[in-house]
């Protein structure tokens, strides 16, 4: 269940960036061929793959790295490196370590990766 809920909530970030659903004003006019546009593609596709449990370990590893980069690029230099609560980086840190957990734990029983052959 963790993998499915985690993938769904991450996928929502990509949907907001690429399709405006749910609408987040910050993403109005987002260019697809920009860093945020590329992040939206990774969030949408990666979140969907995690939701269904396909290629869980490599996708989780990639997304963990993506969220690490997001923290250092957007949050670490803003206020205080060691206080994500104050620099706005708490979601990035939580997603990073949640994905790292999924990388080591795998997809679980309810996944395409573990379907019966």
Q: Roughly what percent helix?
A: 55-70%
- Please report the total strand number as a whole number: 0
Rg from Cα: 15 Å
Spans of 5+ residues with little confidence (pLDDT < 50)?
none
Task: Give the N-terminus to C-terminus distance in angstroms.
Answer: 22 Å
Q: Sketch the topology as an H/E string, one letter per element.
A: HHHHH
User: By helix and strand content, what is the structural category?
Assistant: mainly alpha
Mean pLDDT, to the nearest integer, reads 94
The global form is globular
Q: How many domain modules?
A: 1
Strand residues, percent: under 5%
Helix run count: 5
Quaternary structure of the protein:
single chain
Major sheet summary line: none
Give the structure's gist in a few sentences.
By secondary structure, this protein is mostly helical. It has five helices and no strands. Helix 1 runs antiparallel to helix 2 (35-52) and helix 3 runs antiparallel to helix 5 (90-105).
Descriptive report:
Helix 2 runs antiparallel to helix 3 (56-75) and helix 3 (56-75) packs antiparallel against helix 5. The protein is globular and about 50 Å long. With 117 residues, the chain is mostly helical. It contains five helices and no strands. The chain has one domain. The model has no long low-confidence stretch (mean pLDDT 94). It has helices at residues 2-19, 35-52, 56-75, 84-87, 90-105. The longest helix has 20 residues, at 56-75.
